[in-house]
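Today's session is about reading a structure prediction critically. Students often jump straight to the picture, but the first step is always the sequence itself: look for stretches that repeat, for charged clusters, for runs of hydrophobic residues. Only then move on to the predicted structure, which in these notes is written as discrete structure tokens rather than atom positions. Here is the chain we will use throughout the hour.
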Amino acid sequence: MKVALIAAPFIAVPPADYGGTELFVAHLAEGLRKQGVEVVVYANGESTVQAERRWLYEHPQWPIKNAESGWFKELNHTSWAIEDALCDCDLVHVQSALGLAFVRFSQHPFVLTLHGPHDQSLSEYYSHYPEVQYVAISHNQAKMESMPRLRTIPHGLDVNLYQFVEQKQQYLSFIGRIAPIKGTHIAIDVAQRTGIPLKIAGEVQPVFREYFENKIRPKIDGKFIEYVGPADLQAKNELLGNSMAMLFPIQWNEPFGLVMVEAMACGTPVLAMPGGSVPEIVVEGVSGHICRSARQMTTCIQRLNIKSATVRRYVEDNFSIETMVRGYVGLYSEALQNLKGRQVA
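Below is the predicted structure for this chain, in token form.
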């Protein structure tokens, strides 16, 4: 079996800092190789994933400054990647809806992992490609869709890349895009209520620059509220590993939220608000707490009594890269078998 994994060309695989989808592709590619599956990753030329890599554009381009030119660039990259993959790969696994338009020109099985939130116009678009195997990354996400070939495979990660820290320091952490739906301002409010310092890491995208300047920057003093900028893997390990808890006060239906699992892999409990996949990842009193308000989150922090070893073990048992890879290997095998059945018929 030889699988093509096609990512967008804008962010390296794996990403230097921001890039949840790119991190997923890297973990999946390397996990598949360990299971004996041949993998070709289509990304950009600065990608370092441990698999065969092919690219049309050498350098990353993030953040995207012009949405229209970015769309054309991704379309060009995707069409080139699919044409190339169809020459020597058995199955094509794309990460965005753009790739589906090329299904009509091939008999190869296609897989699309749904990385974004539910969008009715996208769901209507998917309905034109019922032969594609779709993958939801949480049960909550799957409930919003109706494609005939839809399976849920939660993300997993290489737990060994995350340093387990048992003795925590007295500060809270927040990692994610600095955006209203991520609740960065709520994390600051919670820190102020508890009197416990907060360290914020994440990217400020141009579209949310005003939010950052008006709501976040005035609260940053470099001591009690600290902004450390984007965080690579080393910085995540240090920030999350030493933190007594990570705050995830989202204000939308998060499709998955891989950073929650990253924090837990460091033995750090997650205090989150109940949007989207959160109840599937945060187990009350085991890997963290689900809170419905800043006040409740404050109370949970003041009463926090979750053992770091319990949190780490929870991730190992439920969100390992091996579990995720087994799900995709089974899916690929089934898709290829269904293709053989159609050809015989």
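Discussion point for the tutorial: The two ends are 22 Å apart (CA to CA).
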